[in-house]
Amino acid sequence: MALESTAAEDVSCFHFPGHNQGKAVPSSLSNLIGAGAFLHDLPELPELDDLFYPKGVILDAQNRAAQLFGSSKMWFLVNRRTCGIQAAVMGTCCPGDYIVVPRNCHISVISALILSAMCKVSSMFAIPYISVIVDLTRLMMRTSGSMTVFQARRLSKVLSSLTQSSMLHMAGGLVDADKVSHCIQLLQSSSPSYLLLSSLDAARAQLSENGKYFDDSVAMALETKDQLMVIPGVSVLDLPCFASDFPAIYP
Length: 251
What we know:
Residues 3-117, 137-228 form the Orn/Lys/Arg decarboxylases family 1 pyridoxal-P attachment site domain. The chain has helices at 2-7, 27-33, 35-39, 57-69, 80-92, 107-115, 155-158, 177-187, 194-209, 215-229; strands spanning 73-77, 98-102, 120-124, 138-143, 146-153, 166-171. The chain is α+β, with helices and mostly antiparallel strands.
């Protein structure tokens, strides 16, 4: 891993962050989270690539993630998926366009509408987020049979990446990916944490190397569901509760 090899170099650092790879960090903090985190807390060095204009290790990592998830294009996010949702809306919609959103959509969708100067909004029914697999961070655009789908994935929620790290995936060619990239640059930090970036790549590798990563969790969820269904007075949502064309629900 590029971050590991760079951190291991025996050099004198004259760049930020000021803790100088942990040498100046308060002992109370290093004792809490360990010295390794500070050793690898590095800035945008040439060998570590540039998140805004990736051409090396970051580009390779993003391409591997896109291949794993079946995306035509994807971006690493260090401002959580909030900036990904905002960039997807801003990169897709223009002032005066119509957009349809659930009434209980994420607050980042509302902020995206403000940033995009969107004034024509149709609010549809509220989607029960807890019980139903309907990703409120998904944006679809369809024209003349073509479709582009965006999805912001918060890997720290279901996989093992660090908090605040996410991915934005795009499938389809209807939307200008360069425009979305420019929007992400407007919304993301210009000094991304390489700890967050490396955790995204590590989470991708973990899932790629273990295709049955979720099997045990799904089995436990199904077992719990079966046990709940036999408790008097407890109702568990199941597919028959919804229309026949409804996609799916949580196990």
